[in-house]
Structure to design on (253 residues):
């Protein structure tokens, strides 16, 4: 594989969950956000909220990354237009704009010696965040990103093997061996770091499944299976939070 400082920063990046008290300067923050803004966009449908109050994991910076139709509508109104595009389409474009901007920020922070960690339950607190930051209609808090100088050091986490990710010309039939190998790489990698043990992050089993895992063998594939095998079966809560922010997704809209 090739390497250079950009590739190195990307391959070394990891989610940091312990931060030093060192506060990033305004100039550092401006640099990170400008690098974020320069990501490709479909429509610049992303804005950022920043709080410098103590964030989760003791991070000094706490960004909330939003899908923002409000500014687009202000601009379109000045041009004599109103949005007719459906909210599902606009949210998909907005999520892509937001994801690309957020990851540019993550890499920019990494290149400056900082670390970061996303927080994913933001959409389920959208109504509360809307009140806290006095958001106008049509701004949806998508994901949070905490950032600062790390107070912990550890190696990067594993990823699926390339053969389980990159499919040239045709999606292959994934064999049992390929699935087992992908699971082995992920599980051994997280176990080697004591990742779930350190975070005490074992997800409780619901229903009548009996717990058979300890932190000696509970790893990523079990964790992720418990999430998507038990949570969020009903979309109503999320649709409700979207509606609080002025986004309506339903058949025929
Ligand atoms: C959309 C999204 C939501 C996430 N939510 C959380 C979260 O709520 N809490 C947390 O500790 N980490 C969260 N993470 C971080 C992931 O757990 C982490 O990226 C993953 O385990 C891979 O580890 P790495 O980033 O260190 O390579 C989130 C990451 C993403 C992209």
């Amino acid at each position: 594989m090739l390497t250079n400082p950009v590739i190195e920063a990307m391959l070394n990046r990891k989610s940091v969950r312990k931060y030093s008290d060192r506060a990033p300067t305004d100039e550092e923050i401006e640099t990170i956000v400008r690098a974020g803004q320069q990501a490709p966009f479909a429509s610049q449908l992303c804005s950022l909220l920043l709080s410098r109050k103590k964030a989760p994991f003791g991070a000094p910076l706490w960004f909330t990354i939003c899908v923002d139709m409000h500014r687009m509508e202000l601009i379109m109104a000045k041009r004599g237009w109103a949005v007719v595009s459906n909210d599902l389409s606009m949210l998909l474009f907005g999520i892509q704009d937001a994801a690309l901007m957020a990851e540019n920020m993550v890499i920019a922070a990494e290149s400056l010696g900082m670390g970061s960690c996303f927080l994913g339950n933001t959409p389920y607190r959208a109504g509360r965040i809307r009140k806290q930051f006095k958001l106008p209609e049509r701004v949806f808090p998508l994901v949070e990103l905490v950032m600062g100088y790390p107070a912990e050091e550890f190696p990067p986490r594993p990823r699926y093997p390339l053969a389980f990710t990159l499919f040239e010309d045709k999606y292959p039939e994934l064999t049992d061996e390929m699935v087992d190998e992908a699971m082995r790489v992920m599980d051994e990698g997280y176990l080697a770091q004591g990742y779930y043990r350190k975070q005490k992050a074992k997800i409780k089993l619901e229903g009548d499944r009996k717990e058979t895992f300890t932190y000696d063998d509970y790893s990523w594939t079990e964790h992720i299976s418990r999430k998507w095998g038990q949570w969020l079966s009903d979309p109503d809560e999320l649709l409700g939070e979207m509606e609080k922010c002025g986004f309506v997704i339903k058949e025929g809209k």
Observations:
- The longest strand covers residues 139-148.
